[in-house]
Amino acid sequence: xxxxxxxxxxxxxxxxxxxxxxxxxxxxxxxxxxxxxxxxxxxxxxxxxxxxxxxxxxxxxxxxxxxxxxxxxxxxxxxxxxxxxxxxxxxxxxxxxxxxxxxxxxxxxxxxxxxxxxxxxxxxxxxxxxxxxxxxxxxxxxxxxxxxxxxxxxxxxxxxxxxxxxxxxxxxxxxxxxxx
Length: 180
Prior knowledge:
Strand content: 15-25%
CATH architecture: 3-Layer(aba) Sandwich
Largest sheet: 7 strands, mixed
Structural class: alpha/beta
Helix content: 25-40%
Region (Disordered): 158-180
Number of helices: 5
Distance between the termini: 16 Å
Protein name: Hox1W
Shape: globular
Order of helices and strands: EHEHEEHEHHEE
GO molecular function, one term: endopeptidase activity
Radius of gyration: 15 Å
């Protein structure tokens, strides 16, 4: 990570419920990154849910990387995609917000939207457990970390076409990370 985004501020937000099985993967990956140590200018936070208060933090950064569990896809599949503001993104406002909705608030309130990515892993069980992942989700942690390391690298892809890729340890196949 010697080539971290020099002079640019990056915010990594891992979110998900720590007591709902594989939903804890976002905070766990964030905690792992925090333990590794991040380059200067890279901040990592773990959240149970996304709340409106995060909007002020988002606009203070050049790049934001969300880490989350997914329910659509093959268990163990890791995806990275860029996000754009979407005011119509579903949220209940009572319990959590969608990252695209937070970006829409950034756009509306601050006329500024950070370059944003979502790195997600498809989970296989979301029953009660306390920070305990299934082996499938555990296997997805390292590919998620790989994506984050690429995204905080100076040569990280910046367009949607460059980052649309998936990998799956469940199937034993891994799509190569896109060429820079």
